[in-house]
Amino acid sequence: xxxxxxxxxxxxxxxxxxxxxxxxxxxxxxxxxxxxxxxxxxxxxxxxxxxxxxxxxxxxxxxxxxxxxxxxxxxxxxxxxxxxxxxxxxxxxxxxxxxxxxxxxxxxxxxxxxxxxxxxxxxxxxxxxxxxxxxxxxxxxxxxxxxxxxxxxxxxxxxxxxxxxxxxxxxxxxxxxxxxxxxxxxxxxxxxxxxxxxxxxxxxxxxxxxxxxxxxxxxxxxxxxxxxxxxxxxxxxxxxxxxxxxxxxxxxxxxxxxxxxxxxxxxxxxxxxxxxxxxxxxxxxxxxxxxxxxxxxxxxxxxxxxxxxxxxxxxxxxxxxxxxxxxxxxxxxxxxxxxxxxxxxxxxxxxxxxxxxxxxxxxxxxxxxxxxxxxxxxxxxxxxxxxxxxxxxxxxxxxxxxxxxxxxxxxxxxxxxxxxxxxxxxxxxxxxxxxxxxxxxxxxxxxxxxxxxxxxxxxxxxxxxxxxxxxxxxxxxxxxxxxxxxxxxxxxxxxxxxxxxxxxxxxxxxxxxxxxxxxxxxxxxxxxxxxxxxxxxxxxxxxxxxxxxxxxxxxxxxxxxxxxxxxxxxxxxxxxxxxxxxxxxxxxxxxxxxxxxxxxx
Length: 601
Prior knowledge:
The chain is mainly alpha-helical. 76% of the residues lie in helices and 0% in strands.
């Protein structure tokens, strides 16, 4: 066609012809007839060209084809395929060429979608299922500018129909299909804006039908093959639950997302997953371990399975239908976790996946914190200290960092307070032998002065608690430990030095870090007071350290404060007065620390 020559479809519209008498339909009928004739005559050389010609006619630009013409073209193709006299080789040739253009036309309005589905299902029923899986997966990766979600839904429905027709090597075929499906769903969901979110529900419903097809496969299998396919279906469900939950940030479909999650969670129960295994993550771990022995790369498409496991638990607590479906099993799993220290820590650490992610709504994160708070209590701390071997430090650090993110970024005060309560409870439940290590790691990795100040206050509380505990030991214990610094003393002093004498040199920048400086000084003051009591902790600050604290930490800081105050008093503006108000408590605690040090000198 010449560059400036209008297309046949455009001429149809311009001339006002009815779709049934349009030149485009005439060309389509002629192309289908030529295809049939080529195969009947054994002219294989021209058959491929004839099939390509049909596909080209069915691929007008978005501006050229009206919905009515699209519908009529699809009806013409479906009528051709349905004739008893249709040549099987012609059908096979069209199955290679038509899924993409048919799905694109089907994405238009009117009855186009139903007819497009019927055409693709005809190919699935009358052509090689294995070939159709490859053809449809390839079509999934084709970008579509107009109504892309409807295009994908049509293809996913075709894949679901095709999967049910697979007779052998079920697992191998599923391993080909699922990565393609999840890849394209993730890519397309990230492109949808808020106005088209209901289209995502249709997409998840179509993906659900893929799960239904795999479930039917499972019912026909036995022994370890059935177990393997059920494991794959379970991970597929968890990955989709994570994707669905990422859409729940949009309030207009929050309730609908919960209903979709419920349908996916039914796959989990069919596959042998339990609420206890989801709470602790053990079901996901055991499943991925078994599957990794077969094909480790295949598991990459289930990268959010752990998120999904935690999200099932959260949705069950926040969605009425989910809660009703879970029934007593969910409450029983919660109680079992609460009564077992090791499982409790496994469950606590599972929440890091949801709390650390930017993909999930604040409503989901708020319910995650509620569940976390129900799991962590004073009994947890006592039980944990009874376990000498506590292999969860790395996971706990990640969980606490996730809670910190909520404290910093949550949009409302109540949720930030809830996150802070969770942070304190989890830290207090860590074994006393590792608690200061965790706090030190959090402070050293803190990027926000206000957060650092909060963490230093928690250290101060721990120091006070450890000091009281030391004072309560019996006489034999006290005499045995006389003259020894407590094991956490050096760590605490390192943290104070980190703030008052930063590694980059010089005293701290008070304009930006007054909160953490005040907290560090309060912590130092507590240490000096404990040190002056002559208790078990009296050896925390030896003479050499006392001189360093005085000359390298406190005196330089006093000089800086004095200089800043002089400058601010000269300005006298509102900003200067605000800064003076921030410095006053710092100066007060600093002078008290200097007094305590001078008393020891």
